[in-house]
Amino acid sequence: MMGSENNNLPGKGDEEEEEFYHPLSTADQMQTLTLDGDDDYHSLNDDVSASKSYSNYRSAMTTISSSVAEHPLLPPPSIATTPAVADPLLFPPQNPSLDSPSYADVIFSPFHDRFPESNGNGEISGEVTVSSPGSQSSSSEYLNIIVSNPQKEVESSNSIVPGGNTYVTYLITTSTNVSDYGGSDFSVRRRFKDVVTLSDRLSEGYRGFFIPPRPDKSVVESQVMQKQDFVEQRRVELEKYLRRLARHPVIKKSDELRVFLTVQGRMPLPTSIDVASRMLDGAVRLPKQLLGESRSVVEPQDVVHPAKGGRDMLRFFKELKQSVVNDWGNSRPPVEEEDKEFLEKKEKLWDLEQQLTNASKQAESLVKAQQDMGEVMGELGLAFIKLTKFENEQAALNTQRVRAADMKSVATAAVKASRLYRELNAQTVKHFDTLHEYMGLMLAVHNAFSDRSSALLTVQTLISELSSLHSRAEKLETASSKIFGDDKSRIRKLEDLRDAIRVTEDAKSCAVREYERIKENNRGEIERLDRERQADFVNMLKGFVVNQAEFKSIFMKNTRVASNSCAGRSKILFIIAFSITKIYRATHYLQLLGALLASW
Amino acid sequence: MNVQQRSGSGPLVQSPRSPSSQSPYLTVSVSDPAKMGNGVQAYISYKVITKTNLPEYEGPEKIVIRRYSDFVWLRDRLFEKYKGVFIPPLPEKSTVEKFRFSAEFIEMRRQALDVFVNRIASHHELQQSEDLRIFLQADEQTMERARSQETGIFKKKPADLMQIFKDVQSKVSDVVLGKEKPVEESNPEYEKLKNYIFQLEDHLAEAQKHAYRLVKRHRELGQSLSDFGKVVKLLANCEGNALGKAFTELGAKSEILSIKLQKEAHHLLMNFEEPLKDYVRAVQSIKATIAERANAFRHHYELAEAIKFKEIDMNKLRLTRSEKLGEAEHEYEELKADGAEAARRFDRIVKLMNEEIVRFQEQKTLDMGLAFHEFAKGQARLANSIAEAWRSLLPKLEACSSA
């Protein structure tokens, strides 16, 4: 578990959350490699290009993920002394009102987690204060969430079954300055079922938005995995999920989220009664509807909810029929998706999804290859160190000591390289996380688009319904005009029809309004996605590239040192040996040389 | 030339007969591998070019065609004749059929064979060998005849076969008589050396294994980068303008770096892993020499024992004034001559080995120094190109965020 990361949000364009990193405040995060006399970090300046942007990397480079701490080869952490030249809170950039962060700020993001995780004890080391650069105005808002402290609880139900169910609850701590919340710190206990409820309510209430998908129920995994591991995994997922919700510009203002985060005790959101019982209800009503005993028209207020999950089976079947007619019928549906721009964007998004999936997979295998490389380097280094020790212990001749010294410098370089690879990988994984995040987001996009199409289907269905109602009414009217006399039942039927038409008209207007609303939501979200994705990908690339360049520079310097020492010895040895043996056939001169050079 | 460096002390022959002021030289090169024959019987032949001004050799230059089994013949002959010398090791026979004709394998073998011959040519004892002359100069038919005489069970001369039987015999009788340990020298320094050699082999084998895996990892990382580059280029199509261009550049750079990684893998294989493997082989060759010395010692010891018993026998016969005394005296003289010969052989081996060890250690220090230098150089170069390639992307990325 990455216990202590600092966080930073990449350029999110406009608005609120800019989190900045304090390089000096978390001494325990700084580690330098202290393998004999290596001043890599401090001398990095000299070799690195003089451009201003690179000087900022100095301080960033000294702070390497603490996940490295687990490896046995690593020395204990020590504090780096390079100042954080580009700490934005110490030296606020010139234009605090800038929408996109300055380049200096972006530099820090590659090295730190976009989605910082807390350890299980509810702490995030390092400060998580969020404020836009230089300005502490009230327009900057934050909503920080930590999920921690899983506990087993017993369901105290009044059921006949003794013992009851056990389930796990998580402590959810929120700190915020959003005024709607009416407070700054909250702490509640929630179980996973509550999260499912929250997620369902959000999907109903925010149709058309790209709502981050909730963690899976993982029924199989919960049985198969070790209890502790599974609970920890879920805790991490929950935290990520809630933070994503808190970052969504619309959802974070939602009542549902607020209630979830703040209300003590039982969560007052209506629970999602499972699909089976809803369908049962619907099935019970259906015959009544068909017989005309129960309402068979859709109420306007119901129109805003999708037919699929609701209790109105008749409506569900009507819409189903409509969709079949749309697909297979000869005539065009009454209203169609005409928004060309939308259709184009949709196609592009599906393409993006495909490419993201591939990229994500390749990124994973790249990370793995890097990891393997680092491991073998380390093993090679260790093997040579053993050899060095062996030669030194057993040395009967000086040449052996010379060779041992050469070997040692190479071995040292290899071991250092191995460490570098490990650290590089930890960072690379975090960068590529962006890809995975966006892949998860695609699911939200699918949902939002299907909200749209089901709303459209509702409109289409109602329009068809209306036209059939109208034609029935017409038929009745022409029929009654032919036959004289008050046919009470016919008059009543006509009135009923006219009633139904009125209600359905209202419902149709509602449905159309809903559809338009969802379309608008879609449009806004697509735009936001494109914008944020652009910024996030740029950061990801920058982070990756900068990371690689910096690590490779250090690596190069390490190995150059090793190469010089070997080259020096062997070249001179060779030259002298060659010239001497040209004159004398005396190998013992080489021994002399060996002795000379061993003292080198 | 790389080859000369690896053989350390340059090619040098001092011929007492050469009055000329031009210093004597003998250089050999193994080149131009060519596939001969078809199907199962196919093999690779090499051109062996000898350049020399030694009188024992024909002309300034001589070219012959040789195949791997010819080199094996040479090695075996030298091993027989020059006991005590660490014969330079040969590259292994290929165990996997698939790779027998792969370009890489052939090149590695050619390089190793080149080094092999040159080491022989520059060894002051071995370079005087008759067999070397045959190898470097004889026409192909003569070579083939010589080679086929040595194959299979005919490899061992009858005397050697007898020796093998005797060894087995004595080993069995030793065990039966309760003498479990075979007779060995009680020389503490030599014991130390033997220990050293055996342990060294283990250490080196491990290092070589890791070196080989490192080569493989370079290849895998290269492949992975190439795949990554392709996918990133596709992703570029989904993004517009500056970002798309950045992705495309990233993809292109990934592919370039992939090629560099493959090159470095090859460089590592040839200049780092191969020398390590060569080192392992050399140690194994030393082990063979150690075995030879043990044989020589045992032979010498047994003869010394036999002489002692013979003396006792003779004295008994002298006392009894048996007519067998004459015969016994005759046999005794013979035994003493054999014993002296065996002692001489053993002493020579010991002396040679002492020189060889020093030479070996120096040689290896040079070889390894070079190999490590190549390793470090290659890695530094690679890291540098990678760092530069990635850095070159930054301006484009900068353009994206300001756009």
Automatic annotation (TrEMBL), chain A:
Residues 335-369 form a coiled coil. Residues 148-268 form the PX domain. Keywords: Coiled coil. Signal peptide: none annotated. Residues 1-27, 118-139 are annotated as: Disordered. Pfam families: PX, Vps5. This is PX domain-containing protein. It comes from Rehmannia glutinosa. The lineage of its organism: Eukaryota, Viridiplantae, Streptophyta, Embryophyta, Tracheophyta.
Automatic annotation (TrEMBL), chain B:
Residues 1-26 are annotated as: Disordered. Residues 24-143 form the PX domain. Residues 14-24 have a biased composition (Low complexity). It holds the Pfam family Vps5. This is PX domain-containing protein.
